[in-house]
Amino acid sequence: NNNNNNNNLTLALVDPPGSALYNKVRYGVAYASQQREQHFIKNQYNTLAEGIGLDRVTANFARALPYVKKAVKISDQTAVDVAHYLLQYSGLFVGSSSAMNVAALLQLSKQQQQQQNQGHKTNKNILGITIICDTGQRHVTRFWNRDFIVNTCKLQWPSDNTDTWKERL
């Protein structure tokens, strides 16, 4: 219902690699580079994130689209790094979707801070809210599996290099 709009509220989409929804929000076209001609593969979602990201606009997303004001792409490496950070510093054992949600919130917060530092007029009293929607228990064979992350996904395991993984956040 558009009569209940709150101009102080910004709804943002977080999208993993291979999904077309980011481009739908940003540019009005549901397209991802993985869909380009001669590169289309049967399982185009070469991402760790499970349960998020699509190559099409569903009916429920189409209804929400007018309210989505920002879109954020989060890499698999960032999701892994954020998940390890949350476990180490908050004791939260999260899955890939939750890690992506928190990573998006951090990225949007950094963007807001940069805008303030550049002198843009922004609301200094920002409250970020996200949903921790999955636990790490269902992700132990992939997202929380060092061998899979390093050897199959070719990503860095955060505790292998404690000096640099937090810098990537």
From TrEMBL:
InterPro entries: Cys_Synth/Cystath_Beta-Synth, TrpB-like_PALP, TrpB-like_PALP_sf. Pfam families: PALP. SUPFAM superfamilies: Tryptophan synthase beta subunit-like PLP-dependent enzymes (SSF53686). Residues 9-114 form the Tryptophan synthase beta chain-like PALP domain. It comes from the Eukaryota. This is Tryptophan synthase beta chain-like PALP domain-containing protein. It comes from Eucampia antarctica.
